[in-house]
Specification:
single chain; 274 residues; alpha+beta; 5 helices; 20% helix; globular; Ectoine hydroxylase-related dioxygenase (Phytanoyl-CoA dioxygenase family); oxidoreductase; dioxygenase activity; Phytyl_CoA_dOase-like; dioxygenase
Length: 274
């Protein structure tokens, strides 16, 4: 699985749109500066060391390295914390919104996350973001920001170009030895998993149906930290309730209808906290 996702400077918006429509994923170089990623890294590391972020979802046992570095879910909803202010400011940063708008039109912010992925951490099984967000009538888009240089060794993202054309499917049980999440979407017939490689400040944008995930961090001394935002078109009429309220480009909050129906796994589906 070689690095075959071509990268582009953020000025080539027409090229990015064509590539996104074709592959469901684009890699944009150096959207953020090294100084910015250094600051982001320092702020989030300080927060996790201070109190392990009282808003995080614990999905791991105490003997798992991820228990010491749990992912932060929706820090943009914590304005009293520096991590919250940073996340909200970046969610509405024109550099990201210009890219998102070029790919899906005017958008609202729906979610923020920060992953630490320290050495020896498990990865995350292949999945589709649309399974969780359930936005309608169009799906979401992710903006995955590399805060560290990342490659196969420290668990950079793997993606399946072309899978954005498939429906969101109900996942199956994942291998707990490799993934800290318990569900997996298998690679569609005829498509292949491709490994990404990114520098700090690069952004990977991908469609809500694009299958993606990551392998464990097998290095001895390299974190793979990332800051992720999800956006939905402003034409969205509903979304899973966990993601409300949405955030407008001006920072104000917007509420739309809460999605019902249980998602692709039926009425008992409860995959809200992605």
């Amino acid at each position: 699985m070689n690095h075959t996702i071509p990268s582009s400077p953020m000025t080539d918006l027409a090229v990015l749109r064509d590539r996104y429509d074709r592959d469901g994923v684009v890699h944009v170089e150096q959207v953020l500066s090294r100084a910015e990623t250094d600051e982001i890294r320092a702020v989030f590391m300080a927060q996790v060391e201070a109190d392990r972020f009282v808003g995080a979802v614990e999905e791991v046992t105490d003997d798992d390295v991820l228990a010491r570095y749990p992912r932060f879910l929706n820090p943009h909803r914590r304005p009293e914390l520096e991590v919250g202010r940073r996340a909200r400011a970046l969610m509405t940063d024109a550099r990201l919104l210009d890219l998102v708008t070029a790919l899906i039109g005017p958008a609202y912010g729906a979610q923020s996350m920060f992953y630490f992925k320290p050495p020896a951490a498990r990865g995350q099984a292949l999945h589709q973001d649309g399974y969780f967000l359930r936005s309608h009538p169009e799906t979401c888009i992710a903006a995955w920001i590399a805060v560290d240089e990342c490659d196969a060794a420290n668990g950079a993202l793997q993606v399946v170009p072309g899978s954005q054309a498939m429906e969101v499917v109900c996942p199956q049980d994942a291998n707990p030895a490799e993934s800290f999440t318990d569900k997996v979407v298998h690679v569609p017939t005829g498509l292949t998993v491709q490994q990404t490689r990114m520098r700090a400040g690069d952004v990977l944008l991908f469609h809500g149906s694009t299958v993606h995930g990551s392998l464990p961090n097998t290095t001895a001394d390299r974190f793979r930290r990332s800051l992720i935002f999800h956006y939905v078109p402003q034409t969205s009429t509903e979304i899973a309730g966990y993601y409300l309220p949405l955030v407008s480009p001006d920072g104000s909050e917007v509420t739309i209808a809460q999605a019902g129906g249980g998602g692709p796994c039926g009425d008992q589906w409860a995959g809200a906290a992605h």
